[in-house]
Design goal:
By secondary structure, this protein is of the alpha/beta class. It has a domain of 210 residues: Rossmann fold, CATH 3.40.50.720. It contains eleven helices and twelve strands. It has a seven-stranded parallel sheet with strand order 3-2-1-4-5-6-10, sandwiched between helices. The protein has a three-stranded mixed sheet with strand order 7-9-11. Strand 1, helix 1 and strand 2 form a beta-alpha-beta unit. The protein is globular and about 55 Å long.
Length: 327
């Protein structure tokens, strides 16, 4: 079977491509001409150049494929001009799904995000059915992923066999950018993390997320969402696990929200003046007020999804960062 994959050069996409190859799929990857292709070097795949915002190149690249994995997205909390993140994440998703519908593909797996879902609490983690309140859609990235998921659900209602997966905070190999979660791990390994925020996240091995995509293809119900997560951890718990793995002391100082927010505004203004990319923005600080804890029961029961413990996922991430020379 031939699979068309967007976002193959990215973190999740590179792992999805490898999972597909391991299952015997032929892979055709849509890649921007300017993309960093380190993550797919040497892989036995067909690369077609195109751009999510360019419908003709998407459709042309998809021709001859039975299934589609739309993994590509702009994952950043600082994009200038701001409209770009909506053009890629929302309009790009519409282009991929429109092409799939016109070409009559058998199944589409769309990689959404927990950013598009509602928020629970520490005591009651969110599920796929938790209502989305406007105040939790902080920043352009979250809003764009929410709107893109609504596009996917609309195509499903119109008959396109699209299954939606919502990864949480994956860690592991091929995080070359790195992602915001990967940056936290790198900062810890480089001993550049003097403090932590009082927040929580759901940590999952990226290899399990990739396997979850294939399970969604095989067993997922069209029009349904499935959280591909792992283990709920506070930020302090995650750093303590990293300390156990590496022997590096975990930071003891908790950075207060009331101090972090005004500093993030100063940092953002400075970066607007200098053209640099901020490490901390008002949006990312506001996000720490919510514990990103999620319940993966639906994916377990319907897909047979069974992720490894967070400690093993973090160990693999540490090993890959070290072996790749990023530390």
């Amino acid at each position: 079977m031939r699979a068309f994959v967007t976002g193959a050069t990215g973190f999740i996409g590179a792992n999805v491509v490898r999972a597909l190859l391991g299952k015997g799929f032929e892979v055709k990857a849509l890649v921007r001409p300017t993309s960093d292709r380190r993550n797919i070097e040497g892989l036995p795949i067909e690369v077609v150049e195109g751009e999510l915002r360019d419908f003709p190149s998407v459709k042309r690249g998809m021709e001859g494929c039975e299934v589609v994995f739309h993994v590509g997205a702009l994952y950043s909390f600082w994009v200038r001009p701001r409209r770009l993140i909506y053009e890629v994440n929302v309009d790009g998703t519409r282009n991929v799904l429109r092409a799939a519908q016109e070409l009559g593909v058998e199944r589409v797996v769309y990689t959404s995000s927990i950013a598009a879902l509602g928020r629970g609490t520490k005591e009651k983690p969110a599920t796929e059915e938790t209502p989305v309140r406007p105040e939790v859609l902080i920043g352009d990235y979250k809003r764009s992923k929410y709107l893109a998921q609504q596009v996917a659900l609309e195509f499903a209602r119109r008959g396109l066999p699209v299954v939606i997966v919502n990864p949480s905070f994956p860690v592991g190999p091929y995080d070359v950018k790195p992602t915001p979660t990967g940056q936290v791990i790198l900062d810890f390994l480089r001993r550049k993390l003097p403090a932590y925020m009082d927040t929580g996240l759901n940590v999952v091995a990226v290899e399990d997320v990739a396997e979850g995509h294939i399970l969604a293809l095989e067993r997922g119900r069209p029009g349904e969402c499935y959280i591909l997560g792992g283990e709920n951890l506070t930020m302090k718990e995650m750093l303590d696990i990293l300390s156990e793995i590496t022997g590096i002391p975990a930071p003891r100082f908790r950075f207060p929200y009331t101090l972090a927010l005004p500093l993030s505004y100063l940092n953002a203004w400075f970066c607007l003046l200098t053209g640099k990319r901020p490490r901390m923005t008002p949006d990312t600080v506001r996000m720490t007020r919510y514990y990103e804890f999620f319940d993966i029961r639906k994916a377990r029961e319907e897909l047979g999804y069974d992720p490894m413990p967070a400690g093993e996922a973090l160990r693999r991430a540490v090993d890959w960062f070290r072996e790749s020379g990023m530390v």
